[in-house]
Design a protein that fits this description.
This protein has one domain. Helices cover 69% and strands 9% of the residues. Strands 1-2 form a two-stranded antiparallel ribbon. The relative contact order is 0.22.
Length: 90
């Protein structure tokens, strides 16, 4: 995977993480946090889809790596809601 593909993967993860944070209504941090939430959401969402037995929807292939867009957003929402419930409000 080259540098350009890596940047594209970070961009997609950041957008998915931002959408997940917007749907959940809880946002803490900036771009880097959105990217991390996007990647955690992709892992969590893919695991949930395997456990439920649902197919992966709308995958984007970048340099041989598959990134599940829909499950990343769903996983991001779940992750952000859990983090929001566990942390104190300001």
């Amino acid at each position: 995977m080259g540098f350009l593909e890596f940047l594209l993967l970070l961009l997609i993860a950041g957008v998915c993480g931002s959408i997940g944070q917007a749907i959940a209504g809880y946002s803490r941090g900036g771009c880097v946090v959105s990217i991390v939430v996007g990647f955690i959401g992709a892992l969590l969402g893919s695991w949930m889809s395997e456990q439920i037995g649902l197919p992966e929807l709308f995958n984007v292939n970048i340099a041989g790596s598959s990134f599940p867009i829909i499950w990343s957003i769903i996983g991001s929402v779940v992750f952000v809601v859990i983090v929001g419930l566990l942390t104190k409000k300001r």
